[in-house]
Each structure stands twice: as structure tokens, then as C-alpha cells.
Amino acid sequence: MYIFTTSQGSRARVGENQHENDRLLHESKQSWWWFHASNVPSGHGVLETATPSRTEIKEVAYEVFKRCKGRQIDYCLLRYVKRTQTPGLVEIKRRAKTLTF
To answer: Measured between alpha carbons, how far is 85 from 67 in angstroms, rounded to an integer?
Structure first.
């Protein structure tokens, strides 16, 4: 798991396999922010704050982007992400926002 601190001082984590992704989802608060590449397999990112700045959103999205093959990174509040029975696989209950790199 890749762990870092954003420029604004919030902690962020990016899973590097399906088991880390699943653990990340299990350990995170519903008020935190979730990140994932659009329509391709990738690590999940979590920004551990309920009120991120635009800069923090871009920083976490970029870290997810660097570790996958997708150019678009979706993000939303974790309360809209539902874990499935397959480790690391999720369903999004609400349309996510997208950043393109």
C-alpha cells in the first residue's frame, strides 16, 4: 500500500492489489473520498478527509493515475461505494466525478 501526505496535510492511501483495495475500503470512513481509474483495473485511492481541497483531489487522483493504465480517474464520497463479495471489486451507487490526465 502506498501511503502519503497531501500538500494540505491530509493522509492518503492507494491500494496496489485487490486485497489491499478491499482492506482500504473496509478501514475507511464513509465521509472520506474514494478514487479509481475509469473502466480499467486499478488501485483504489482514499483521501482521509471529508472536506478536501481541489489540490488534494488532484494529488490523490494523480497518484492513482501513475499506477494504472487509465487516463481518467473517477472519485466520489466513500458512502457511494459499495463493496461486493469479490475482494477489491465495488459498485458505485451514484455517478462519480472524473479527472482526466
So the answer is: 24
Find the angle CA(14)-CA(17)-CA(23) to the nearest 5 degrees: 70
Report the distance separating Cα 8 and Cα 56, nearest Å. 7
The domain limits of the chain are 2-100
The label of the residue with cell 481541497 reads 53
List the one residue out of 93, 96, 64 whose CA is nearest residue 80: 93
Q: Which of 86, 10, 9 is nearest to 35 (CA)?
A: 10
pLDDT at 88 over 80: no
Query: What are the DSSP calls for 41-62, one per residue?
Result: ----EEE--SS--HHHHHHHHH
Asked if 75 and 61 count as a contact pair (C-beta separation under 8 A), the reply is yes
How wide is the angle at C-alpha 69 spanned by C-alphas 68 and 75, nearest 5°? 60
Band (89; pLDDT cuts 50, 70, 90): confident
Residue of 12, 50, 44 lying closest to 29 (CA atoms): 50
